[in-house]
């Protein structure tokens, strides 16, 4: 048999050392032939139980690491969000700090599905919202559904409208625009929520969060509410009579409650982070605009002015002692 002298590449810390010779009677030639010779020697050595004449000691190939697939995040279906020019809060923040904000929806006529309706404040099994949200011929206990921060929907089994609220077919703003909804289950709020007994004074800063339109005529599909990024201060109303109060973030802010935010809470955060709801949103005013940069201010009913009526209906809501 013809001798086969290795032509091996000995690799050592970046340096290549070559030994040339003959392989199966041929002079060391091109790289392809060198590789062929090297492979032949290794095969022959393997049959003899050796490690291969002139075999190159190579580091083992690193293990193949397969990156885990990203987790599948299932976002539950939810209502559209609101507050023109506001800040959309995260799902986790809604479920913790702002879980008192709930979405209210009702059936259309004919009953061909759910339509966006209003926003409300939940505590236990009661929801405080605007009276005009339920003052429609198609609204009854069995046709209103409340979506909680957990994504679960609760049915409304009873409702009560303030006796001084006077709804008209022409719509518009009407005093005592508040309504209570009774749910078929009790919700356990993460944060404590008080209803404020006193009426906010001029200049008092308030926030509002709801599921209305982000801009007039355009709903924003999401499953969490929007909260004003700039507090809205109590300002003088222009034509709206007491007990209404008005609030604005300023003439150039563009922030205001919008269609679908009706019934939402006007709230402040005080004392250990507790939420103090000072009013219920009714609409916008000043120039007949609906919301956003076209509206001079938003209008709400102070909870203090309807405290006696709320307490006559339920003892679920708590009122601060000061």
UniProtKB/TrEMBL annotation:
One of its GO terms (biological process) is proteolysis. GO terms for molecular function: serine-type endopeptidase activity. Residues 1-20 form the signal peptide. Residues 60-79 have a biased composition (Pro residues). The keyword Disulfide bond applies. Keywords: Disulfide bond, Hydrolase, Protease, Serine protease, Signal. It comes from the Eukaryota. The keyword Iron-sulfur does not apply. Pfam families: Trypsin. Residues 83-315 form the Peptidase S1 domain. Transmembrane segments: none annotated. This is Peptidase S1 domain-containing protein. It comes from Zooxanthella nutricula.
